[in-house]
Here is the input.
Amino acid sequence: MSNHGAKKPDNLSKRQKILCVACICLVLAGVAKVANVATPDDSTLQQPTHSVIDDPASGTLQDDEQSKLAPSTVLDSFASAIGQQPSGTEEFKTTTDSAHSRLEYRLSAFEDGSGLHAQFDGFTADVITYSGGTSLRAYLDGDDTHVSANYAALVKAIDKDASDNQIQRDLDAFASTGSGGGSVSDGTIANTSIVKVGSITEALIDAKIG
Here is the structure.
């Protein structure tokens, strides 16, 4: 009887050891599983695949618009539309001492302006940006026939969606009174003008950029 009683503690001890080993195995398995889950850091976080524009009214859309209304782009579109390349072009600043100065260049809005002067057959075209690059102005200077014939092409080079009816009203008013144009409420163009300035006919188109 004393021998059987002595073996009991040994059997309990073995069970405890087995339970302990099993618990340790479970704990180790859990640790291994957790170790396989990587903690994200700055290098592993997925980055956005597109550019983020903080201000929806600026950024890429504005850049695209500025590119479309760059003086060189407008002149290229105009030349293509009339089927005539300029015989020469010249960059200039909108200052009062410029070779292509105009009375309005004395105004503060034109202090930082610049543009391109282009010589065509029978007329010239000037396209400038001014007012801190937020506005564009295009001029045609020549005789009645050349300016009237090319006016629509210049308007469309600035805004391809400009109203044909508005363009025709400008030309009709000029033909009958010597002065046409006015404010434009829709689209890129803000106002237009076609008038006699001494012996020269001048067309002017103002546009907003962006």
Notes: The beta strands are 88-93, 114-120, 123-130, 135-142, 179-183, 189-197, 200-208.
